[in-house]
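Checklist before submission:
- one chain only
- standard amino acids only
- sequence pasted in full

Submission:
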Amino acid sequence: MQTVVNTSPYYNSWIKEANCSIPLMKEAISKQDFTTMGELAEENAMKMHALNLSAHPHFSYFSPESIQVMNLVEELRSMGIECYYTMDAGPNVKIICLGKDTASITSFLQKIFLTLKFWFLQRDQVYNILINLQRKVMMF
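Returned file contents:
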Protein backbone atom coordinates (compact mmCIF):
# COMPACT_ATOMS: atom_id res chain seq x y z
CA MET A 1 0.00 0.00 0.00
CA GLN A 2 2.92 2.32 0.59
CA THR A 3 3.68 2.29 -3.14
CA VAL A 4 0.11 3.44 -3.80
CA VAL A 5 0.31 6.15 -1.13
CA ASN A 6 3.58 7.45 -2.58
CA THR A 7 2.84 7.23 -6.30
CA SER A 8 -0.87 7.09 -7.16
CA PRO A 9 -2.24 10.44 -8.32
CA TYR A 10 -5.70 9.26 -7.14
CA TYR A 11 -4.85 8.24 -3.58
CA ASN A 12 -5.95 11.49 -1.90
CA SER A 13 -9.24 11.47 -3.79
CA TRP A 14 -9.89 7.91 -2.67
CA ILE A 15 -9.24 8.87 0.95
CA LYS A 16 -11.74 11.75 0.67
CA GLU A 17 -14.37 9.50 -0.91
CA ALA A 18 -13.79 6.76 1.65
CA ASN A 19 -14.22 9.28 4.47
CA CYS A 20 -17.46 10.52 2.89
CA SER A 21 -18.81 6.98 2.78
CA ILE A 22 -18.21 6.33 6.50
CA PRO A 23 -21.34 8.17 7.68
CA LEU A 24 -23.34 6.46 4.93
CA MET A 25 -22.09 3.06 6.08
CA LYS A 26 -22.82 3.86 9.73
CA GLU A 27 -26.35 4.89 8.80
CA ALA A 28 -26.85 1.75 6.71
CA ILE A 29 -25.66 -0.39 9.62
CA SER A 30 -27.92 1.36 12.12
CA LYS A 31 -30.90 0.93 9.77
CA GLN A 32 -29.88 -2.65 8.92
CA ASP A 33 -29.91 -1.62 5.26
CA PHE A 34 -28.08 -4.60 3.79
CA THR A 35 -28.26 -3.31 0.21
CA THR A 36 -26.52 -0.04 0.98
CA MET A 37 -23.92 -1.78 3.17
CA GLY A 38 -23.10 -4.22 0.39
CA GLU A 39 -22.99 -1.59 -2.35
CA LEU A 40 -20.72 0.69 -0.30
CA ALA A 41 -18.35 -2.16 0.65
CA GLU A 42 -18.07 -3.42 -2.92
CA GLU A 43 -17.64 0.05 -4.42
CA ASN A 44 -14.97 1.04 -1.91
CA ALA A 45 -13.01 -2.17 -2.43
CA MET A 46 -12.98 -1.73 -6.19
CA LYS A 47 -11.89 1.90 -5.91
CA MET A 48 -9.06 0.82 -3.61
CA HIS A 49 -7.93 -1.82 -6.10
CA ALA A 50 -8.07 0.70 -8.93
CA LEU A 51 -5.38 2.63 -7.06
CA ASN A 52 -3.02 -0.29 -7.55
CA LEU A 53 -3.25 0.15 -11.31
CA SER A 54 -2.43 3.85 -10.98
CA ALA A 55 0.65 3.28 -8.81
CA HIS A 56 4.20 3.21 -10.10
CA PRO A 57 5.04 0.46 -10.64
CA HIS A 58 1.45 -0.64 -11.15
CA PHE A 59 0.28 -3.99 -9.81
CA SER A 60 -2.86 -6.01 -9.25
CA TYR A 61 -3.97 -8.58 -6.69
CA PHE A 62 -6.64 -9.93 -9.04
CA SER A 63 -6.21 -13.37 -10.49
CA PRO A 64 -8.31 -14.63 -13.40
CA GLU A 65 -10.33 -16.60 -10.84
CA SER A 66 -10.88 -13.47 -8.72
CA ILE A 67 -12.40 -11.67 -11.67
CA GLN A 68 -14.48 -14.73 -12.53
CA VAL A 69 -15.89 -14.88 -8.99
CA MET A 70 -16.71 -11.15 -9.07
CA ASN A 71 -18.54 -11.65 -12.36
CA LEU A 72 -20.41 -14.62 -10.90
CA VAL A 73 -21.50 -12.57 -7.88
CA GLU A 74 -22.89 -9.98 -10.28
CA GLU A 75 -24.68 -12.80 -12.12
CA LEU A 76 -26.14 -14.04 -8.84
CA ARG A 77 -27.45 -10.53 -8.16
CA SER A 78 -29.08 -10.45 -11.59
CA MET A 79 -30.81 -13.71 -10.61
CA GLY A 80 -32.23 -12.06 -7.48
CA ILE A 81 -29.72 -13.31 -4.90
CA GLU A 82 -28.45 -10.28 -3.04
CA CYS A 83 -24.71 -10.58 -2.47
CA TYR A 84 -21.66 -8.37 -2.85
CA TYR A 85 -17.93 -8.96 -3.18
CA THR A 86 -14.92 -7.39 -1.61
CA MET A 87 -11.20 -8.14 -1.57
CA ASP A 88 -8.22 -7.11 0.49
CA ALA A 89 -4.57 -7.51 -0.54
CA GLY A 90 -4.56 -10.87 -2.29
CA PRO A 91 -6.65 -12.83 -4.79
CA ASN A 92 -9.22 -14.12 -2.29
CA VAL A 93 -12.75 -12.84 -2.78
CA LYS A 94 -15.08 -12.30 0.15
CA ILE A 95 -18.81 -12.47 -0.57
CA ILE A 96 -21.10 -10.54 1.74
CA CYS A 97 -24.57 -12.06 1.88
CA LEU A 98 -27.50 -12.82 4.12
CA GLY A 99 -27.52 -16.16 5.91
CA LYS A 100 -30.56 -17.36 3.97
CA ASP A 101 -28.54 -17.17 0.72
CA THR A 102 -25.32 -18.99 1.70
CA ALA A 103 -26.44 -22.40 0.44
CA SER A 104 -27.59 -21.02 -2.93
CA ILE A 105 -24.39 -19.07 -3.41
CA THR A 106 -22.03 -21.89 -2.47
CA SER A 107 -23.97 -24.38 -4.60
CA PHE A 108 -23.82 -22.05 -7.60
CA LEU A 109 -20.09 -21.42 -7.21
CA GLN A 110 -19.16 -25.04 -6.49
CA LYS A 111 -20.60 -26.06 -9.85
CA ILE A 112 -17.95 -23.87 -11.47
CA PHE A 113 -15.08 -24.22 -9.00
CA LEU A 114 -15.16 -27.90 -8.11
CA THR A 115 -12.29 -27.77 -5.59
CA LEU A 116 -13.05 -24.40 -4.05
CA LYS A 117 -12.90 -24.03 -0.29
CA PHE A 118 -15.42 -21.85 1.53
CA TRP A 119 -15.31 -20.34 4.99
CA PHE A 120 -18.34 -18.75 6.61
CA LEU A 121 -17.97 -15.87 9.02
CA GLN A 122 -21.26 -14.91 10.66
CA ARG A 123 -22.05 -11.44 11.98
CA ASP A 124 -25.67 -11.56 13.18
CA GLN A 125 -27.57 -12.46 10.02
CA VAL A 126 -24.93 -11.20 7.58
CA TYR A 127 -22.43 -13.73 6.33
CA ASN A 128 -19.08 -13.36 4.67
CA ILE A 129 -18.07 -16.21 2.42
CA LEU A 130 -14.32 -16.28 1.98
CA ILE A 131 -13.29 -17.99 -1.20
CA ASN A 132 -9.74 -19.25 -1.02
CA LEU A 133 -8.39 -18.94 -4.55
CA GLN A 134 -4.83 -19.61 -3.42
CA ARG A 135 -5.79 -23.16 -2.36
CA LYS A 136 -4.00 -22.64 0.96
CA VAL A 137 -5.29 -23.28 4.45
CA MET A 138 -6.29 -20.01 6.06
CA MET A 139 -6.63 -19.33 9.77
CA PHE A 140 -9.00 -16.79 11.36
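Reviewer check: DSSP finds five helices and four strands in the chain.
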